Structure to design on (455 residues):
């Protein structure tokens, strides 16, 4: 650093006149401690400002001396009293050791404070991480519970259906595609005893929106509504129970089904007579 | 200059203060009250307030003395800074703020001194000579020293570049420095 340039810049004068911010002042003090030339120049500026301050000197009212000295005496006594100490015979030595002791306490307190602050920061960040992990774990658990529930339901359904299918009373009726829809295929499972009807729409094309398949039972040449085919993922749908049927057929109907089948829109049909 | 403010007496005083010699308080007051009071009065401009600030200053000097470091500067400079800071804090508190920045430069210094008691003749000599200080330079020193302005606040207040503030501050103190030698 060019000390002469620094001295000539006027920054020392600003320091002496009190025109620097605390940060700027610290910089000046630092450089003055490093460079004797800066220190000497600064010293002179400060003495000049002291002299300038003195040109404003004015004695306060004489009565003020007693008042302020009394106040100072009281302040000194209060600070001694509040420290809770008996005035020792050798005040200088005792106060030095007291000051040193209290300084050690201060240092210890500062160290403890810093350690505790650091621990707080660390523990807080750990707490945040842990909370986050807990939240994730809770979400995962809820998801698993939901999946287990769904699987249980599905397994229960399957068992029920399997029971229906394995029942010797259950009749499987293959419904084959009619001329217009040769690829279409479906199965009706009809329990002769309980009259329950299950429908497997496996090979029916997806119903266009606004329309639904409807299952019909044909008894004595008359169509009986066996329910509409709901769009679901289940392979087997529970339909209306049917007392008597010689055949089953599926037609495409407006959503909600019809009272009479639209025969032109028939997809599959199968005979249920033994 | 005032013989009570020379280095030897300051050293003695520091030693006595450090030893918590009760006599040191009286000595401190007798040696420095006029100097500190003059600066405080120049800042707060009201005698009643200046007396309060002077008392606050001595309390602070007494209680903060363990933090005073001789290596960092002279006792007088340290005490002046305490008094100045307390006085400037005072004028920045609400009741003083109005108008203090717009007309900070009333030239009341001389009249204070003429009416003051116990001013030593050589002070008046310096005072008369500081009258010779270029007003453009003096205003910069005074804004910082008696109004607590920073260099950039001075530049803004006077609408001059920061570099000019520095140059003028340097010239002012150079000039004053020659006067006191």
């Amino acid at each position: 650093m060019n000390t002469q340039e620094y001295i000539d810049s006027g920054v020392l004068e600003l320091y002496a006149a009190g025109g620097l911010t605390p940060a700027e002042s610290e910089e000046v003090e630092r450089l003055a401690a490093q460079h004797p030339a800066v220190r000497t120049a600064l010293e002179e500026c400060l003495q000049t400002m002291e002299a300038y301050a003195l040109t404003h000197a004015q004695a306060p009212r004489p009565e003020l001396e007693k008042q302020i000295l009394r106040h100072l005496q009281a302040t000194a006594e209060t600070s001694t009293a509040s420290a809770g100490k008996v005035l020792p015979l050798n005040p200088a030595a005792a106060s030095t050791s007291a000051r040193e002791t209290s300084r050690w306490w201060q240092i210890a307190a500062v160290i403890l404070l810093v350690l505790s602050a650091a621990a707080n920061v660390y523990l807080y960040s750990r707490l945040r991480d842990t909370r986050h992990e807990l939240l994730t774990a809770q979400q995962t658990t809820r998801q698993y519970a939901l999946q287990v529930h769904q699987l249980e339901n599905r397994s229960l359904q399957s068992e029920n259906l399997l029971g229906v299918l394995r029942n010797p009373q259950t009749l499987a009726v293959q419904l084959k595609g009619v001329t217009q829809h040769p690829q279409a295929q479906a199965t009706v499972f009809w329990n002769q005893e309980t009259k329950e009807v299950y429908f497997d729409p496996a090979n029916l094309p997806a119903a266009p929106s606004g329309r639904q398949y409807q299952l019909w039972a044909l008894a004595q040449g008359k169509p009986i509504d066996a329910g509409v085919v709901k769009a679901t993922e289940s392979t087997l749908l529970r339909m209306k129970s049917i007392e008597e049927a010689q055949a089953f057929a599926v037609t495409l109907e407006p959503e909600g089904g019809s009272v009479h089948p639209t025969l032109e829109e028939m997809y599959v049909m199968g005979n249920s007579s033994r | 200059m005032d013989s009570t403010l020379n280095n030897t007496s300051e050293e003695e005083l520091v030693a006595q203060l450090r030893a918590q010699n009760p006599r040191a308080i009286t000595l401190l007051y007798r040696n420095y009250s006029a100097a500190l009071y003059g600066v405080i009065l120049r800042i707060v401009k009201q005698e009643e307030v200046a007396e309060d600030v002077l008392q606050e200053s001595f309390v602070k000097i007494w209680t903060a003395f363990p933090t005073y470091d001789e290596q960092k500067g002279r006792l007088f400079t340290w005490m002046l800074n305490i008094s100045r800071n307390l006085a400037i804090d005072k004028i920045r508190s609400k009741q003083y703020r109005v108008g203090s920045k717009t007309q900070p430069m009333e030239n009341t210094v001389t009249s204070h001194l003429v009416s003051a008691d116990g001013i030593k003749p050589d002070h008046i000599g310096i005072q008369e000579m500081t009258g010779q200080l270029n007003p453009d330079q003096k205003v910069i020193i005074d804004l910082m020293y008696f109004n607590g302005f920073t260099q950039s606040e001075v530049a803004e207040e006077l609408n001059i570049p920061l570099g000019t503030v520095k140059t003028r501050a340097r010239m002012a103190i150079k000039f004053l420095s020659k006067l006191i030698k």
Q: What stands out?
A: The radius of gyration of chain A is 50 Å.
